[in-house]
Write a structure and sequence with these properties.
The complex is a heterodimer.
Chain A lengths: L2 H22 L7 H5 L21 H4 L11 E16 L5 E3 L4 E12 L9 E10 L2 E7 L18 E11 L2 E21 L5 E22 L7 E9 L2 E13 L8 E10 L2 E9 L3 E10 L34 E11 L6 E12 L6 E3 L1 E5 L4 E5 L8 E12 L6 E20 L5 E21 L1
Parallel strand pairs in A: 7-10, 16-20
Antiparallel strand pairs in A: 1-2, 1-3, 1-21, 3-4, 4-6, 6-7, 7-8, 8-9, 9-12, 10-11, 12-13, 13-14, 14-15, 15-19, 17-18, 19-20, 20-21
Chain B lengths: L2 H14 L7 H5 L3 H5 L13 H4 L11 E15 L2 E2 L5 E14 L2 E12 L4 E5 L6 E2 L10 E11 L2 E23 L8 E23 L4 E8 L2 E15 L3 E16 L2 E11 L2 E10 L10 E7 L30 E14 L3 E12 L12 E2 L3 E13 L8 E18 L11 E17 L2
The chains are: A mainly beta, B mainly beta.
Chain lengths: 452, 445
C-alpha cells in the first residue's frame, strides 16, 4: 500500500470514527461550564479553548483537540462561585439571595496508543463536573418572585462529557463527543380505595439526556512566527426537564384536574464557537466568539393544567411567554509560559469575556388568581439578567522529572453585571418599570493533574 | 372474592406501572467474562470489570483497555402460574482501564458504567400490601457508574478503591389558585417547584495478594447506599367560589437500598490453560429499608355556607399508615467459576468458561399483610471468549470478544398467610431468568 492510499484509508477511518461517535450519541449538555468555562486553564483564559484548548478540557471546548494529547493524565479539582445579585425597584428585595455553587472537577487525558497510520493521532477525554451538594437543581419559582433564572441555578448541575479527537493530517483535526445530564419524570397518584383508605403511589425516574459536541481545528498554513490555529465547535441544546403528573382524580368526588408539575430545570442553548489562536513556545493568545441560540429557549414554566384535546381553549393559566434574544459572546485569553528549567515551567494567564444578556428588556406579565377579587390578575414576572463582563486570571505550574509529574492550575474570575433596567408589559400593552439588575459573581478554582 | 383475582388485579395494576431499581450487577454481573464465570473474579480481574469486582485488579492491567458490551436479562417470574411481566434488565456496559506508573509505582485509573436502555434509575413507593418481586423489579434497573484508582506498591500486592455514584430526589411543590370542580380543566392553578437531585456516593475498596504464581487471594468491601425520595406538596386555593382548601402532603421513602458487602475471594491457576476461582460474598441484608412511603397529610376544607352541591363529597384526611417491618437476614453468597484456554494459536486464543452461584433469599416469610416476594436463586452460567493478538497494524495489542449465557432458577415455593382472611391470600411463586450478553474489549500495549 502506497503512502497516498494509506492516507486515504486513514482519513476514511478517522471520519468513520468521529461520525460513528457523533451518530451513536444523541443530544445533551450542562451549564456551569457555559457560565464559567471548564477546567483550570481555560477558565483562567477567558473561557477560550476552541483553538487553544489543551487536555481533558477540550472534551468541552473542542474535542478535535483531544488528538493533541500525548500523555495520560488524571486531574482533580475544586471550584466555587458566589453570586452577589441585586434587583432594585418598587417591591423588589434589593439583594437576591442565592447560595454558592461548589463543585468537583474530574478530568482524564487518554491518548489512544493505536499503531500504524493511527499512531499518535487519536485521543479521548473525560470531563466531569459534579456539584458537591446536588446533581441537578430544579428551581421553578412563581414569576412574581424576583429571580435571575439564567445564572445561579444553572451553575448547579452535573456535567459529564466524553469526547474523541482524531488528527486527520494536513493540519486538520476533527472530534466529536457528548454531554450527558439527567432529567426527572414521575407521577404521584393519590386515591381512596374501596375500603375508604387513602393511599399514594409515587414513582420517579431519572432519564438521561445527551447533547452532541462536534469540533474541527485547523492549523493555518501561513508564514508566521507562531502556529496559527482556527477552531470551530458546535454544542447541541441541553434541556433537562422536570415533569411529574399528580393524579388525585380518585381521591374523592371533587372534580380535581390532572396536575402537570413541569418545567425546565436546566437549559443550555445550542451554540457555535469560533476561535483563532496564536500558539507559541512561550505565549499563546486566543480570541473568538460564541453564538448562543437563546431564541429557542422555551422558558422555565409549563402550564399546571394542560387543556384536554376536546377543549383546547380551556381557561387554564398559561405561563408568560418571553422572547429571548440570541447572543454573541466574545472571549479572549492569553497564556505566558516562563520556563525556569526543563523540569519546571510556571505559566501566567489572563483573559476576558463578554456575555450579552438574552433576556429582553420588556417582560410580559403573568396571570394569577386573586382571591380578593375572585378573578384573574396580572402579576409582574420579576425575571432579571444583565450583560456580564468578566475578567479572568490564573496560573499554572508544570513539573517534570526529577520532580513528580504534576500539573497545577488555579484561576479566578470576576463577572460584573452591567446595570440593566427591565420593564413590565401587561396584557393591555401598558409598560411600567420593573426594576434594575446589577451585581457581580466571583469564581475560583484549582485543579491538580498527574501524568502517568 | 377469588384471591387469585385479587392477586392478579394487584399484579395487573403493578405491571401497568413502570418498574424501579437498585443493583443490577449483583444479580447479573458486569461484562461477559465475569458473568460467564458466575461473577467469581474478585481475585482474577484486571479489566474494566475490576471497577465493580475488585478495584485493586486495575493495577494489574498492562496497557490501556477500552470495553463496551450489552446484556439482557429476561425475567420469567410467576405467581400462581401467572407470569408477572417483570421488566427485563438490559443495557450497555462499558469502561476503561488506564494504567501507568507514578513515581515508579504501577498505578491505574478505571471507569465503568452500566447504562440501562430506558432510564438512569427509577424510584417507586408502593403501598406495602402490593405484591412485588422485591429483588428483581425495583432493584435492578438503575445506572451503575464507578471510578477507581489502584496501585501496586510491591509486585505481590495491589490496592484499589473509588466511588460509585447515584442521586436521590428532594422536592417541594406549591400549587395555588382557583379549582373549578364543575369544569376541572377550567381551573386556574399554577405551581412552583424547588427540587434537587442530590448526589449519593458510596465507596468500594479492594486488595489482592499474590501468594504464588498460581494462587491469589482478594478481599473487597462495597459500601451501602440508600436512594431517598422526599417530596412535600402544599396545595391551596379557592374551590369554585364555594369555599377554600388547604392540602398539605409530605412523603418520605427509601428506595433502591444497596446493602454493604464484603467479598473474600481466591484464584487458583491449575495449569497454564486452566484456573478456577471462588468468591464468597457477605451481604448485609439485615439493614434493608423497605421501599414504602411514609405519608403525612393535612387537609382543611371548611364546608360551604350553603353546604356541598349534590353528589360532591370532599376528601377527608387519611389516618397515617402503620408501616410493617420487613425482616431480612444477612446472607453469604458463594460464587465459583472456571476458565479454560481451550485454544492457543500464535495469533489468537479461544476460551471456555463456566460458573455457578447460589443466593438464598434474605426476605423473611411473608405471612402478614406485606407481600415482598422472593425465592432462593441458583444461577448457572457459560461463556466463550475469543482473543485476537495484534490483528492489524493499527491495533498492536489485542481484541477480545466475550459472550455469556446465564440461567437463574428461582425455586418455586408457596407462601402461606397467617390470616385466612388476608386480602391477597396464599400464593405460589417461582420462575427463571435468562441473562445473555457480549463484551468487546480493545487492549493497547
Amino acid at each position: 500500500m502506497g503512502p497516498r492510499s494509506g492516507h486515504v484509508r486513514f482519513v476514511s477511518v478517522a471520519f468513520a470514527l468521529t461520525a460513528a461517535l457523533a451518530l451513536a450519541t444523541r443530544i445533551a449538555a450542562a451549564s456551569p461550564e457555559d457560565i464559567f468555562g471548564y477546567g483550570g486553564r481555560s477558565s483562567a483564559m477567558g473561557a477560550t479553548g476552541a483553538a487553544a484548548g489543551e487536555g481533558y478540557e477540550t472534551a468541552y471546548l473542542n474535542p478535535a483537540l483531544l488528538s493533541t494529547m500525548r500523555a495520560r493524565k488524571l486531574s482533580l479539582g475544586l471550584t466555587g462561585a458566589t453570586f452577589h445579585l441585586n434587583a432594585e425597584g418598587e417591591g423588589l428585595p434589593g439583594r437576591v439571595s442565592y447560595g454558592a455553587a461548589k463543585g468537583l472537577v474530574i478530568g482524564a487525558d487518554l491518548p489512544i496508543p493505536f499503531g500504524g497510520i493511527l499512531k499518535d493521532r487519536v485521543g479521548a477525554g473525560l470531563a466531569f463536573y459534579t456539584p458537591t451538594d446536588v446533581v441537578v437543581r430544579g428551581r421553578i419559582l412563581y414569576p412574581e418572585t424576583a429571580q435571575f433564572p439564567l445564572l445561579p441555578d444553572r451553575a448547579q448541575s452535573v456535567a459529564i462529557r466524553v469526547g474523541l479527537g482524531v488528527d486527520v493530517g494536513y493540519g486538520l483535526r476533527v472530534g466529536a463527543g457528548f454531554a450527558a445530564l439527567a432529567e426527572i419524570q414521575g407521577s404521584a397518584i393519590v386515591a381512596t380505595d374501596a375500603t375508604g383508605r387513602v393511599g399514594t403511589r409515587v414513582e420517579d425516574q431519572l432519564v438521561a439526556t445527551y447533547a452532541p459536541t462536534i469540533g474541527v481545528a485547523y492549523d493555518i498554513p501561513v508564514r508566521f512566527p507562531t502556529k496559527l490555529r482556527a477552531g470551530v465547535t458546535y454544542r447541541g441544546t441541553l434541556d433537562a426537564r422536570f415533569a411529574v403528573q399528580i393524579d388525585a382524580t380518585k381521591l374523592s368526588t371533587l372534580n380535581i384536574p390532572l396536575l402537570n408539575i413541569s418545567g425546565l430545570a436546566q437549559y443550555d442553548p445550542a451554540q457555535l464557537a469560533f476561535e483563532v489562536a496564536s500558539i507559541g513556545d512561550r505565549i499563546t493568545l486566543a480570541g473568538g466568539v460564541t453564538f448562543k441560540r437563546w431564541s429557542k429557549y422555551p422558558g422555565l414554566l409549563e402550564p399546571t393544567i394542560q387543556c384536554p384535546a376536546e377543549n383546547p381553549d380551556c381557561a387554564a393559566l398559561l405561563p408568560p411567554k418571553i422572547a429571548y434574544d440570541d447572543a454573541l459572546a466574545v472571549h479572549a485569553g492569553a497564556d505566558w509560559a516562563l520556563p525556569v528549567s526543563s523540569s519546571f515551567t510556571p505559566h501566567v494567564r489572563a483573559g476576558a469575556m463578554l456575555e450579552p444578556n438574552p433576556l429582553p428588556s420588556r417582560i410580559p406579565t403573568a396571570q394569577a388568581y386573586d382571591p380578593r377579587t375572585q378573578g384573574l390578575a396580572d402579576v409582574k414576572a420579576r425575571y432579571f439578567n444583565a450583560t456580564r463582563i468578566a475578567l479572568t486570571w490564573g496560573a499554572g505550574l508544570r513539573f517534570a522529572d526529577p520532580f513528580p509529574p504534576l500539573e497545577l492550575d488555579v484561576y479566578g474570575q470576576l463577572h460584573v453585571l452591567a446595570p440593566t433596567s427591565h420593564e413590565s408589559v401587561d396584557s393591555s400593552g401598558a409598560v411600567t418599570p420593573l426594576g434594575k439588575a446589577s451585581g457581580h459573581v466571583l469564581a475560583a478554582g484549582a485543579v491538580l493533574g498527574v501524568r502517568f | 372474592m377469588n384471591r387469585n383475582v385479587v392477586l392478579g388485579a394487584f399484579f395487573a395494576s403493578y405491571a401497568c406501572t413502570l418498574h424501579a431499581s437498585a443493583n443490577p450487577l449483583d444479580a447479573f454481573g458486569l461484562g461477559s467474562r465475569a458473568a460467564g464465570m458466575g461473577s467469581a473474579v474478585a481475585a482474577d480481574t484486571s479489566g474494566f470489570d475490576a471497577n465493580y469486582y475488585n478495584p485493586a485488579g486495575l493495577a494489574r492491567a498492562r496497557g490501556l483497555e477500552i470495553s463496551i458490551g450489552y446484556f439482557r436479562a429476561s425475567q420469567y417470574l410467576k405467581t400462581n402460574g401467572h407470569d408477572n411481566d417483570v421488566d427485563p434488565v438490559k443495557g450497555l456496559v462499558g469502561g476503561l482501564v488506564a494504567p501507568g506508573t507514578l513515581l515508579g509505582v504501577p498505578f491505574a485509573f478505571g471507569l465503568a458504567i452500566h447504562l440501562p436502555d430506558d432510564r438512569i434509575s427509577r424510584v417507586r413507593a408502593l403501598r406495602q400490601e402490593v405484591p412485588r418481586w422485591e429483588m428483581y423489579d425495583n432493584r435492578n434497573q438503575r445506572l451503575f457508574l464507578a471510578a477507581n484508582l489502584a496501585v501496586s506498591p510491591v509486585k505481590w500486592l495491589q490496592l484499589g478503591g473509588g466511588f460509585s455514584f447515584m442521586s436521590s430526589t428532594e422536592g417541594k411543590l406549591d400549587i395555588g389558585g382557583f379549582l373549578n370542580i364543575f369544569r376541572a380543566e377550567d381551573s386556574q392553578l399554577r405551581h412552583q417547584v424547588d427540587a434537587d437531585l442530590t448526589a449519593v456516593r458510596y465507596p468500594q475498596l479492594g486488595a489482592r495478594v499474590e501468594l504464588s504464581e498460581a494462587v491469589a487471594l482478594a478481599v473487597v468491601y462495597r459500601g451501602e447506599f440508600k436512594l431517598k425520595l422526599d417530596l412535600s406538596a402544599y396545595l391551596h386555593g379557592d374551590i369554585s367560589h364555594l369555599t377554600t382548601a388547604i392540602y398539605a402532603l409530605d412523603t418520605h421513602s427509601v428506595n433502591n437500598f444497596l446493602p454493604q458487602q464484603l467479598v473474600v475471594a481466591g484464584s487458583w491457576k491449575l495449569s497454564d490453560d486452566l484456573h478456577t476461582n471462588l468468591d464468597v460474598t457477605w451481604v448485609n441484608w439485615g439493614a434493608y429499608v423497605p421501599p414504602v412511603a411514609s405519608l403525612n397529610v393535612g387537609l382543611d376544607i371548611p364546608p360551604p355556607a350553603g353546604g356541598w352541591p349534590n353528589g360532591i363529597t370532599p376528601p377527608t384526611a387519611p389516618a397515617p399508615a402503620k408501616i410493617e417491618a420487613l425482616k431480612m437476614n444477612d446472607r453469604v453468597v458463594p460464587h465459583v467459576g472456571v476458565e479454560w484456554r481451550a485454544l492457543a494459536r500464535p495469533t489468537w486464543e479461544g476460551f471456555a468458561r463456566a460458573g455457578y452461584e447460589y443466593a438464598k433469599s434474605p426476605i423473611g416469610a411473608q405471612t402478614g399483610v406485606t407481600n415482598y416476594i422472593d425465592r432462593d436463586r441458583h444461577s448457572m452460567s457459560l461463556g466463550l471468549g475469543l482473543r485476537a493478538l495484534a490483528p492489524i497494524a493499527e491495533l498492536p495489542g489485542d481484541v477480545r470478544l466475550d459472550a455469556h449465557a446465564q440461567l437463574s432458577e428461582l425455586v418455586t415455593a408457596t407462601t402461606r398467610k397467617a390470616d385466612p382472611a388476608d386480602l391477597v391470600g396464599d400464593f405460589t411463586a417461582g420462575g427463571h431468568i435468562w441473562n445473555v450478553g457480549a463484551t468487546l474489549t480493545v487492549g493497547f500495549p
